[in-house]
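USER:
Working in pairs, take the chain set out below, taking as long as you need, and write a paragraph about the fold.
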Amino acid sequence: MQTTTPPRRTIRLTRRGRIALIATGAVMAGTAVAVPLLSTDTPEVKRPTSLVIPEGWRASQIYAALDKALALPAGTTLKALPKAGLKLPSDAGGNPEGYLFPATYPLDDKATPQSLLRLMADTANRKFNGAPTAAGAQRNAMNVYQAVTVASIVQAEAAGPTDMGRVARVVFNRLERGMPLQMDSTVNYALNRSTLRTTAADTRIDSPYNSYQRMGLPPTPIDNPGEEAMKAVVDPPAGNWLYFVTVKPGDTRFTGSYEEHQRNVAEFNRNQRSANASASPAK
């Protein structure tokens, strides 16, 4: 479903560097004069002392951020994953997506990809395995891993925290009625991209994450949700909503009527055409 994806914060990371300028000598007035060593060493730039993982980042984004934060070659964290010994649900099949909890993590001299991944997974287990989450999942006829999967969709689809509960209710209503979820966010995950526009061709891709073609939940979470998304899944508001679309920033419309949804989608499309026309350079 079309929605506005919250902006993702980026982390600016630096590497250590040093520049030295040395003058070795000079001859002045016919006499050899030793010129003292001149050093313009810049202060050593230290690596960051912490790393912020935003809500909704995919595992691939987190791996890349760890590589940069620890000044490691690209791909190092991904290669280190099998050695990290993460405690994950059996349903995850070793895939930590959804269990790399978004938070601020310390980067001390002993930090490694394995230690940081373990810290993220341990944090997720503490957050997700409490009684309220387990009870909330059970009320909606699912286990905790499935609840995390729903929360990842809510995190990706909701325009903001105020919409998360209603997005969760849409997911549950569709599952209860045997309807495909038809969430653009799952298709984006399959295509490894983020966009507000999903084409008809996109919805026909052969992927277990294509919720237009496949029934039920995707096989894994599609990002790493935060606490607000999990709270929305554990205790969503009552409602008959089956459709939603963010017509414009700050205006997400939920409805149980397909006809009303089509009118909302038409308004979204008009707004998009108007915005694109305004952004086009003058000829």
